[in-house]
Amino acid sequence: MAARCPLPARASFRDLLRDLLGRPVTVRPGPDLELDPERMSYLSGFRFDDGEVAAIAVTDLDLSTAAGAAIGAMPPQETRQEVDAAGELDGDLAEFMHEVINVASRLLNSPTTPHVVLREFRPVPGEVAEDLAAVATNPAVRHDWTVSVEGYGEGRIALLS
User: Fold this and answer.
1) Quick one: how far is CA 53 from the chain centroid?
2) Using CA atoms, how far apart are residues 41 and 113, in angstroms rounded to an integer?
3) Of 38, 87, 99, 125, which residue is the least packed, with the fewest Cβ within 10 Å?
4) What residue spans define the domains of the chain?
5) H or E element: which one contains 10?
């Protein structure tokens, strides 16, 4: 039987983001994050050390922008306008969001399961490894949350395992 990766509780995710971003964060249930082929989202693939898929996080462009800009202390309005014009995260902003997700990966580790690390961070729509796509389309466990980052806006995340 494959190892199971525990998904974090909403409060744990909120606390980690609040501490990491240095500002108030709220995380509330739903609605389900549906991918829009016309609007970029970001898929993060977490794997056990043996390479098997542990979990996936999908963040919409709004949350990716808010969290990336907040950790990078970027000006919220200007950053949002640049992302809206480009339709995606630029190099620095993508790196900042990658760091947010990488730090959040510690919430996927537990003393009773194999070690989990972030292995993929990519825009979607786009190419996704077959094993990640299988979990994304048929997860055993799914959490969909709306996340608000004070001063930077809100967006959605889906955590899947």
Assistant:
1) 15
2) 29
3) 38
4) 10-31+40-155
5) helix 10-21
Distance between CA atoms of residues 21 and 38, nearest Å: 29
- CA 146, CA 126: separation in Å to the nearest integer? 23
pTM here is 0.94
Angle of helix 61-71 relative to helix 10-21, nearest 10 degrees?
A: 40
Note the pLDDT of residue 157.
97
- The DSSP code sequence of 87-148 is TS--HHHHHHHHHHHHHHGGGG--TTS--EEEEEEEEESS---HHHHHHHHS-SSEEEEEEE
Q: What is the pLDDT of residues 14-44, one digit of tens each?
A: 999 999 999 999 999 999 998 888 899 999 9
Whether the CB-CB separation of 160 and 56 falls below 8 Å is answered with: yes
SS3 content of the chain, % helix, strand, coil (to 5): 35, 30, 35
Say if residues 20 and 143 touch (Cβ distance below 8 Å): no
Angle, helix 61-71 to helix 76-86, in steps of 10 degrees: 140
CATH dotted code for 10-31+40-155: 3.40.1550
Cβ atoms 147, 156 nearer than 8 A: yes
- The answer on pLDDT for 1 being more than 50 is no
**Token pair in block for residue 20:** 């990491």
